[in-house]
Amino acid sequence: MQRRQIAATTLGWVLWTGTEYAMHRGAFHFRPTRSRSTLGGRARQALIRLVAAEHRSHHREPLRTSLFLRLLGHVAVAAVSSGVPVMVRHRDAWAGWVGFTVGYSVYETVHWRIHHCPGTVNDARVEHHRVHHEEATRSNFGVTVPWWDHAFGTVAVARRRPDLSPGVLVD
Description:
With 171 residues, the chain is an all-alpha fold. It has one domain (3-151). Helices cover 65% and strands 0% of the residues. It has helices at 3-28, 39-60, 67-81, 83-88, 91-116, 123-134, 147-151. The mean pLDDT is 82.
């Protein structure tokens, strides 16, 4: 791979981490408001409500995993994000797409392992996410990296000593 493609792949991954943070903070923890929006706005709000409801379910039962939804997420991320390199028509854009989609796969893997086998993931990642689930649901939105929580002031520190045994994140 050439340097530009390595840089584009890295940029794609960094863009994924920002997207992960924004989606988790915005759509996943969406608080509905009454508004008179257009049909497209109402459809978008309905989709966001559906995503938020699924995420609330995840907070209630973190060990319940829908393989269908995980696969659907991979297909959706790959399909939607592939529009960028198609429009840009540049090979480096495809390298960025690879970084973005691999970033999503890493997110899914890390998130699953945090809940199902936390001893196999960096303890700091497990603790960051445990605090999000158990102590401060309006904080610690980054699952794979904490950068965006630091950048946007949404970091919360643990108030109690964590138990990092398997299945502990069941709040």
